[in-house]
Amino acid sequence: MRLALGQLDPTVGDLEGNLEAALLLARRAADEGADLLLLPELVLCGYPPEDLIAKPHFVAASERAAEEFAARSPLPAVVGYVRRDAGGTRNAAAYVADGAIRHVYHKRLLPNYGVFDEERYFEPGAADALLQIDDAACALTVCEDVWRPATTERLAGAGARVVLNISASPFHAMKGDERESMLAEQARANGVWIAYCNLVGGQDELVFDGRSVVIAPSGEVVARAAAFAEDLLVVDIDPAAHSADGRIEDRLSGMAEVYEALTLGLRDYVRKNGFTDVVLGLSGGVDSALTATIAADALGPGHTHGVLLPSRYSSPGSLADAKELAGNLGIATETLPIEGPFSAMLDVLAPVFGDLPEDVTEENLQARVRGTLLMALSNKFGWLVLATGNKSELSVGYSTLYGDMVGGFAPIKDVFKTSVYRLCRWRNERGPVAVPEATLAKPPSAELRPDQTDQDTLPPYDVLDAVLIDYVERDRSTDEIAATGVPADIVARIVRMVDAAEYKRRQGPLGIKISPKAFGKDRRMPVTNRFGG
C-alpha cells in the first residue's frame, strides 16, 4: 500500500478554498502513485470551527464540500468534515472512492478539556469503522480516538492491521515527543501500523504543528512529515511483511520548535485576517526585540515596522539597542517622542491631582500615550499592532491596560520571561544575529521612572517563573509551592498578583499558545473570586 498523508493549513470557514487545496494535494498524491490519501480532521471547514457549527447553513456547506471532494478526488481518500444526521452534529471522517462517499465514521471520543469543547458541539459516534482498503484491513479513527489505548486494542482485536488517524492536534512545547511515544507504544503493544495525519497552521491562539507520522508494528517511526509546514508525505508499507519505505523529517524540539510555532502562528494570524504589515514599539528591551525578530522572520523585514517612543526616562543605551536591532533585522523605524503629549496630559490633570506625589499613575500614562500612537499608525496605514508582553508580566499584572497591552495580537503572550531570553539566544545562534548582546545583558526595565528595573517590583524572574509554572500551569496550592523551597511570603505575594490581574488578561489581545496551559481557553478563572491560593 502506498499511503499519502496530506498536511494542510486550512482557514476556518473558507470551505471553497480548503476544498481546492485538498483537491490539489489529492492530484499530487495521485501523480505519485498513492493508493490512499489521508487528510486532517475537519480540514474542509477548518478547525476549530467553534460556534459556526450552530449555523445550519455552515454544516450544510461542509457536507456539500465533502460530496464535491468525493466526486472530484482522483484517488481514494479519508477526509475530515462536519455533518449532521438524525443523531446530531458529528465530527466526521469520510472514506471516498470512485467518485462518491463510501463510508462515514463519526469520532467516538470527544475531548472536553484544555482548549477543547467538543462535547459542546458534537454528538459522539457509536461504531467503529473497519474497511478493506487495497487488501489491508484498515480502521478509521479521528484524533482523540487514538489517544486512548483501549481504542487501538479494540480495533486490533477486531482484525485491523492499519489504524488510520486524521487529527487536529494543537501544539504545545514537547507535545510532538509525547505524541510519537504514545503512538509508538500503541503500535508495538497491538502489532498494528499507525498512520497519523495532523493539521498544520495557525488558528487564532492555536498552532497545529503537522509532524504526521507512520509507525510500524515494531514501534519504529518509518516516515515523518515536516514540522510547522504544509507537506505531502508518501510512504510505501507492506502490512504483511512489516516493511516500509518513506522519508523522515526532523521532528524539532526545545527552542527550535517553540520559535517555529510562534513564527507560524503570527504569520497565519496576519495572513488569514487580511493584514500584510505589523507595527510594534521598540523599547530596546528583550521582549520587543524577540517580538520584532519573530515578525521579521514570519512576514519579512519589509512588512515589519518598528517605532521608537522615547520618554524623559529613556536611556541612550536603550535607544541605541533598539536601532541596532532594527538594523540587524533590516526593518524600517520611526521615532515618535512622547514628551509632548505626556506633558500635555500632566498639565490637563494638574488641577485635579494637585500636590499629590507621582506614582504608578504617571508611569501608566506614558504607556498609554505610546499605545495611542501605535493605534494611530494602525488606523492610518492598516498595520496590525503587536503587543510585546510576555507571560510572566501578564501573569502578575505587570502591564498597563490601554498601554503596553494595546494590540491586535500578542505573539509572546504565552512565553515566560526566562524563555524569552532563551529564545533570543537560540535565534542569535541560528543566525544571523538579531538581538543585540547589550539587550540581553542589561537588567530588564520598563523605564517609566528614573533608574527603574523590573526587580524593584517583582521577584527575580527565575524565581517568579518557577512559581508561575507551579501555580498557573500545574494548579498547585501555595503550600505545595512553598514546600519546593520558595519562601512562603514570596509565593503568597505572587499568587495574589496573579489572581488580581485576571481582569486585565480578559481585556488583552489573543496570543499564541505554546505551553500546556495558556491564559484564555486553557485557563478560565472568574474575575470576581475570593478563593485564595
Order of strands in the sheet with the most strands? 5-4-3-2-1-14-15
CATH fold group of the largest domain: Nitrilase/N-carbamoyl-D-aminoacid amidohydrolase
Q: Name the CATH superfamily classification of the largest domain.
A: Carbon-nitrogen hydrolase
- How far is the N terminus from the C terminus? 56 Å
Number of domains: 2
CATH second-level architecture of the largest domain: 4-Layer Sandwich
Tell me, what's the shape? elongated
Summed up, the helix count is: 17
Low-confidence stretches: none
Strand content: 15-25%
Mean of the pLDDT scores? 95
How would you explain this protein's 3D organization?
The protein is an alpha/beta fold and about 525 residues long. The protein folds into two domains: about 1-245, Carbon-nitrogen hydrolase (Nitrilase/N-carbamoyl-D-aminoacid amidohydrolase, 4-Layer Sandwich), CATH 3.60.110.10; about 255-450, HUPs (Rossmann fold, 3-Layer(aba) Sandwich), CATH 3.40.50.620. The protein has 17 helices and 19 strands. The strands form four sheets. It has a seven-stranded mixed beta sheet with strand order 5-4-3-2-1-14-15. The protein has a six-stranded mixed beta sheet with strand order 6-7-8-9-12-13, covered by helices on one side. β1, α1 (about 15-30) and β2 form a beta-alpha-beta unit. About 50% of the residues are buried.
